[in-house]
Amino acid sequence: xxxAVILLSGGLDSATCLAIAKKKGFTPxxxxxxxxxxxxxxxxxxxxxxxxxxxxxxxxxxxxxxAFGGSALTDEIDVPKDRDDDAISDEIPVTYVPAxxxxxxxxxxxxxxxxxxxxxxxGVNALDYSGYPDCRPEYIESFQTMANLATKSGVEGNNGMTxxxxxxxxxxxxxxxxxxxxxxxxGLTHSCYDPCDDGTSCGHCDACHLRxxxxxxxxxxxxxPYAD
Length: 228
Fold this sequence. Notes:
CATH superfamily: HUPs
Strand order of the largest sheet: 3-2-1-4-5
Structural class: alpha/beta
Helix content: 25-40%
Number of strands: 5
């Protein structure tokens, strides 16, 4: 079995990605981030998912992206609510955290070198996504090229680093169906950008909208409670 770093936010995409990595026979090392996000409750979900899948190790790294702000997730900016599909996909939303996936993947790259892993899994999606530029296939391909130029393992190793994006061409409904077939307990996950103090999902932000739409299109019920 080969070691792999799994970027685990605690959301349904990353949980599905972890299940896929396990199915493929990788030994998973989970990596999550406390980066100043307003929805830090997701880390509780990440811990639960990591425990459910008996990951080899789960690192929660602290990064203060709130020091820069610039996003509704890391600054005093209102999270958009009750937007339709056209509005969500029309432009890059204020919930985009500048360079977040680049930062996360860079940490994953360092972690992978330490544990002698040549594989990193990230649950980005280019179909039912909120307009984020760092979720596109061309971005992932470029980062993988950079990773194999910038690391000791990439230069000296027989096999270069591979960034796995098994969900990138799936709809949210397809992701949910895939995870359900793999036995993912979506009741452990969390997606909301603006949850209540107790972690209950708001039901109105873009993340909640895409999640609820995905379960509806998959013909399944979302096991999470919602405030409204």
